[in-house]
Design a protein that fits this description.
- The protein is mainly α and 137 residues long.
- The chain contains six helices and no strands.
- The termini are far apart.
């Protein structure tokens, strides 16, 4: 029962994704064709909120669910790996019509074909876990 709050947060997040239309294939299509600002506004807002929350994490204002400070590891900077990773992510997003966030929301909406996307995402994460130590850092 102590994890029920995380289930509730997930359900609320799913409702927000659904009501803001970020799970709509048409909205994503408009974004990639530069026909609408809607998705860029949502993504920009998320980035801005993320920057603010990261500052709270780094300063110890926000703690984890057990009350411990959240330690944020500094990431190595690198243009090539960021470019390659972002390109793979963007191509997958464009091909599927959804980023990983709303996969469960789309399944909840009855988009059965997204189960293939979920299986591929899990498989990709599993393969990355196997190869992570062998990949250049």
């Amino acid at each position: 029962m102590k994890y029920i709050k995380f289930l509730i947060i997930g359900i609320v997040f799913g409702i927000i994704l659904s009501k803001s239309e970020v799970v709509s294939w048409y909205r994503i299509y408009e974004m990639f064709k530069f026909q609408s600002f809607h998705m860029y506004g949502v993504i920009g807002s998320a980035v801005g909120i993320g920057v603010i929350l990261m500052q709270f994490f780094k300063r110890g204002i926000i703690k984890d669910f057990q009350g411990n400070p959240i330690k944020v590891k500094e990431k190595k900077k690198g243009f090539i790996r960021t470019f390659i990773g972002g390109s793979i992510f963007g191509l997958g997003w464009a091909l599927v019509g959804a980023c990983p966030g709303p996969i469960f929301v789309l399944i909840g909406h009855g988009a059965v074909a997204i189960l293939i996307v979920l299986a591929a995402a899990v498989l990709g994460a599993f393969i990355y876990g196997l190869l992570a130590k062998k990949l250049p850092s």
